[in-house]
Amino acid sequence: MIWNCHADVIFIDLAISLSCPSCQKYLPTYQQGPSATHLFLPTTPCPAILTRYVNEGGLQDGLDILPNITEEAYLAANPDARPARAYHLMCSEGDLQGIVELLHDADEELAGDTVKLGQLIRYQDPLAAGKSALHIAIQESQEEVVWLLLWIASSLPTIAFPPSARRAAETLQIVRLTDDNAQDIRALRTGTGQTAEDLARGMALRWTTLINSGILRL
């Protein structure tokens, strides 16, 4: 299946109908994936829209564009979520400076409204099963980001932070967000009820120190 994409509206219409904008053919196919708990047992088939994608980088056959379509449709309907999605991406990549700059810019745009800034910091992505930035940092093994998020949006005592994390926060001129009366970021749960600590326990070899110290526990 091939078509030329000239506008975001194509993605919005496609996300709603899941049909080709040229011929109206229903597009999703269903592919088996590995089980999350057993590599040799298949899960329920997952929908995919496989395309031949051509851009400046060349040709890609069999590219699943359904995740991109879903994201673009969501952002078209919720444009205010764009900064939050960018923030989550930076958390997944360990981009401390980018996170700080994004939050600084957001603070300026919000004229110092700490409640709205807190909502951005604690944003839970409906396209990622309700994960928060802390969930994502844990999932992607970004320890510096984990400490940064705990510094900004948890009630963890300052003395509980390692010296390196305190120095990083001071260097980046990050203050603790303590006056928005919002939920501690460690308390946030995904759509399946997992806290960041629950997620870390599933990666125990990577997060042994934080788990044993109770840092992620309220």
What descriptors fit this protein?
218 residues; mainly alpha; 2 domains; two-stranded antiparallel ribbon; 9% strand; disordered N terminus; Ankyrin_rpt-contain_sf; signal
Care to describe what's here?
α3 packs antiparallel against α4 and α6 (133-139) runs antiparallel to α7. A hairpin with a 2-residue loop joins β3 (50-55) and β4. By secondary structure, the protein is mainly alpha-helical. It has helices at residues 8-17, 66-77, 82-93, 96-109, 114-121, 133-139, 143-153, 163-171, 196-201, 204-213, and strands at residues 29-31, 46-48, 50-55, 58-64. The protein contains ten helices and four strands, in the order αββββααααααααα. The chain starts with 7 loop residues before the first helix and ends in a 5-residue tail after the last helix. It has a two-stranded antiparallel ribbon. It has two domains: 7-74, no CATH class; 79-213, Serine Threonine Protein Phosphatase 5, Tetratricopeptide repeat (Alpha Horseshoe).
